């Protein structure tokens, strides 16, 4: 079966690494980006140079109409989605909980939780045998913070990612009989732009003493786990949460 996999936030960081690795594994890849069109086009160029097939589309994953348009364009260009990597996510500016503006928290929940729900809902309509699909797999990118907690830095972010894990687990049970597997990956401290909003002292490479493996991870080290969960090798794995944290 042709694998057509949608990667949200595929322009940068973990999503870009996932898109590249999926293409190497033979998936046709639909790369979603919000603002970084040039970066998304660069990922697509690398995929095409390597002989892969892909497309690039602008989408704010928290907007239902934009998500519908994205999946519609994917269906037209590559075919119905058989895979989704719900990767788009933000932390917002970090700080003490009581000093974090409610609007910041609301946007983080909107993108990280509503965005993931909206994309998963749309993907299920393509994939589930109940709706005429041929089956598929969803990987939700959560965070080690969802279960480890992140006091004093990003409590609202950790809360949003715990919601992603809960969605993953519930959905895995609902869709198990409909040919769709659903799993979560919890990255630890991975070197990407997401830390640009943090103070220098908070960046992962400054916190390596808290990580048993004594180093932050690279996006490619998360991508391997995601691609495995989407592969036939993971055909009996659903409802799992895979922590990729260097032991944190
Ligand atoms: P980056 O900041 O490097 O990239 C974020 C990606 O998400 C970009 O492609 C961005 O698009 C996209 N994006 C942001 N908001 C939206 C939106 N509203 N609609 C669509 N796309 C959006 O982050 P990472 O690669 O580090 O993070 C990827 C995922 O991994 C996130 O869910 C994050 O929470 C999670 N994670 C990351 C960790 C880390 O240490 N890096 C640790 C734990 C979890 P654009 O480029 O167009 O702006």
Automatic annotation (TrEMBL):
Keywords: Oxidoreductase. GO terms for molecular function: oxidoreductase activity, acting on the CH-OH group of donors, NAD or NADP as acceptor. CDD domains: SDR_c. It comes from the Bacteria. InterPro entries: NAD(P)-bd_dom_sf (IPR036291), SDR_fam (IPR002347). One of its GO terms (biological process) is fatty acid elongation. Pfam families: adh_short_C2. Belongs to the short-chain dehydrogenases/reductases (SDR) family. This is NAD(P)-dependent dehydrogenase, short-chain alcohol dehydrogenase family. It comes from Actinacidiphila yanglinensis.
